[in-house]
Structures are given as structure tokens and as C-alpha cells.
Amino acid sequence: MRNSKIAGIGHYVPDNVVTNKDLEKLMDTSDEWIRERTGIVERRYFTEGVDTTANMGAEASRRALQMANLEAKDVDMIIFATLSPDYVFPGSGVIMQRELGLKEIPALDVRNQCSGFIYALSVGDQFIKTGMYNNVLVVGAEIHSTGLEFSDRGRGVSVIFGDGAGAVVLSPSESNDKGILSTHLHADGEFAEELAVTAPNSNKKERLTHEMLDDGSVYPYMNGNLVFKHAVTRFPEVINEALEKNGYQPSDVDLLVPHQANLRITSYIQQKMGLPAEKVMSNIHKYGNTTAASVPIALSEAYQEGRIKEGDLVCLAAFGSGFTWASALIRW
Ligand code: UT7
């Protein structure tokens, strides 16, 4: 079986910058609270008529394809991770497929929230390993800003999320010492409702009611403290799992790219793993938490900043709603 490698990577974020100060005008919050508790300074929000979940994914994909020296017609499969698809159905994968002018190749949507990109990467990796496909586009894209409650009631969640997209092209690696060395996926549905949007709800006779709009169940709910506690346990666990599986120590890692959930979570992981700050990617101050888009945006920026060189050992890790958590170890 052959390894897959990241042949190209790109990201796209909307132009519209929304600062903590902007949010102060909409709810009882403060720049100081948001910075201290999350590390976020600003985030991007979509512009209606310009940005969609699918077209942001398409733009990130074009950039990734360009880096890989491939054209859209070379793509064998699309895997699209998002919790904020353009429509309830069909998925954003097919809409992005249309946007890129691709015909008949499969387009799969992945619904694993903050871990969605690594889950999607793992699926693409398997298709390349088996020899079924050669070039797989793996995308994470989100528009959160249209689904947040900009009021005092929603402040615990609304200040965190932002919009954006990232994508990679997976292609066969030249050797089995390079590329994606392993992926590790986990889930625990016991905590499904601890970070969730529970309406519209197909188990109710009326899927969407005025009551749901009024009681806020159409907006994300997060048991922040509980999610935080699980995150700081699961992140180191799943990173260590990837390292142990491949016979490496934390000190062998050249760059850790964690899902950008909270700067305090990232700092905790860094300390727990005994890594210097420069080996841990963080860009939450610019984009907030973009769930499925966060890992590929961070990876793409790290690459552009020259923080990833040929031969580097790069670890991706994520934790989020589900709960789901995952890691991927890559020899670049
Ligand atoms: O990406 C998926 C995974 N997600 C995560 O990993 C997120 C994990 N959780 C977190 O990052 C943190 O729990 C939050 C950033 C969401 C919240 O931080 P916290 O330190 O856990 O705050 P808290 O929820 O315990 O709230 C502390 C106080 C409360 O006031 P009282 O009860 O102490 O008077 C909140 O009402 O902060 C208040 N608060 C706010 N104040 C100003 C909550 N949200 C805000 C806000 N602005 N936006």
C-alpha cells in the first residue's frame, strides 16, 4: 500500500474583519474578556452575495491545486468537511464540485465538526492507499456568522466562531517514509448535546417551530467548561497515540497544528507535550474558531510562513462536538 502526501495546500478567508470591539456593540462582552479567555482578537465574517461555504472551499481548493501543479480536472474525489453547509441538503461537496466545473467525480460531505478536516483527511488517505484514487481534494469550510446569536444570551459562544476555508490536495507519496504516516479517529456520542445545535430537529413533528427560534435552540449550545476539560485530556492523548504508533517522541515533532479552539487550550497542550511555543501553530487571534476549516487554515498559513520544510514531522490534532477527536502524523 502506498502513502498519501499533501501535494498542495491553500486557504481563503472573507475580507470582512470583525473585531472584539465590534462585538461589544452587539452584546454584553469586552475585548478584554475575549482576549483573556480565548486569545481571539478578531475573526472574519462572510459577505452576503460574495462568500458561500462552497465557494470559499472552492477558492481554497484552487490555491491548493495551484501549489500541487494540478488542474481541477485532475481531481478524482472531493471530501468536504463542514458543520455549516450551504443547504440542509444536498451537501456542500456537490456545490463546490459544480463551482470547480468538475463532472461526475464523487463528492462526500463529512459531518464531524472541529475534527471534520482530520476525519476527511483520513478518508482521502484510505482511498489513495488502496490505489482507488490519485488526487483527492480535502476541504474544510465554514460560515458560522449567519448562525450565531448576537445577544447577551449567545455571548458565551458567539464571540468564539469565525468563517473561512482551507483545503489540501492529497496525492500518492513517492515513498512510504513520507506523507501521511497514520491517522487516529475517535468519538464519544455520550456528549453529543454538550456542543450542538439541536434545531431544526427531525425527531419533532414540526421540524422548525417558533418556539425553537425563541428558546435559542437554533443557535449553538456549548457547555464550555465541560468541553474545555475533555479537550485538554483528549488533545495530548490523541497526539501521543500518533507519536507512539510511529515510534516518535514529542521532541521529534517539528510542528504541531492543533485545532484552534482556544489559546488557553493550545497553551495547555504545548506545556503538556513539552514543546516550545515556536513548534505549535496558533492563529486563533486572527480568525477565532473556524471548526472544520481551522486545521487546514492553520496548516496553510504555517506553510506560507515557511514554518514547514521538506522532511519535517508535522502533527495535526483536533477535538470538538460529538465529542470527536483525531490526529494525523505527517512526514512532509
Ligand atoms: O472547537 C470545539 C471545541 N471547543 C472548545 O474547546 C471550547 C472550550 N471552552 C472554552 O473555550 C471556554 O469554556 C469558553 C471560552 C467558551 C468560556 O470560557 P470560560 O473561562 O470557561 O468561561 P465561563 O463559561 O466559565 O464563564 C465565565 C464568566 C461567566 O460569568 P459569571 O457566571 O462568572 O458571572 C460568564 O457568564 O464569563 C461570562 N461570559 C462572558 N463575559 C463576557 C461568558 N461569555 C462571555 C463573554 N463576554 N462573551
Q: Strand portion, in percent?
A: 15-25%
* CA-based gyration radius: 19 Å
Task: Give the mean pLDDT.
Answer: 98
Note the gap between the termini. 18 Å
Structural class: alpha/beta
The CATH homology group name of the largest domain:
Thiolase/Chalcone synthase
Biggest sheet statistics: 5 strands, mixed
What's the count of strands? 13
3D structure, described in words:
There is one protein chain. With 332 residues, the protein is an alpha/beta fold. It folds into 2 domains: 169 residues, 3-Layer(aba) Sandwich (Peroxisomal Thiolase, Chain A, domain 1); 153 residues, 3-Layer(aba) Sandwich (Peroxisomal Thiolase, Chain A, domain 1). The protein has 11 helices and 13 strands. The strands form 4 sheets. It has a 5-stranded mixed sheet, sandwiched between helices. It has a 4-stranded mixed sheet with strand order 8-13-12-11, with helices on both faces. Strands 2-3 form a two-stranded antiparallel sheet. Helix 3 packs across helix 4 and helix 8 packs parallel to helix 9. The model has no long low-confidence stretch (mean pLDDT 98). The structure holds oxa(dethia)-CoA. Oxa(dethia)-CoA binds next to helix 2, helix 6 and helix 8.
